[in-house]
Amino acid sequence: MEQLLAILKEIRPDVDFEAEEDLIGKGILDSLDIMEIVAELGDAFGITLSPADIVPANFHSAQALWEMIERKQR
Q1: Predicted model pTM
Q2: For residue 52, what are the domain limits?
């Protein structure tokens, strides 16, 4: 999780990813942020995200992202 938070902070240093739980609904992350996150997650965690994975539910919080990463690593 610490590696994920570091990646997110690198992309958006202005956001408190540990506290924020509605990144998509509040418009904190836009489509360009999401595409950058997808690329970084692939490199950092050795996962491949399909279009079916790129849905708001998987990106609404750091915890949701982490849970998706764990699922993809299984």
Answers
A1: 0.93
A2: 2-13+21-73
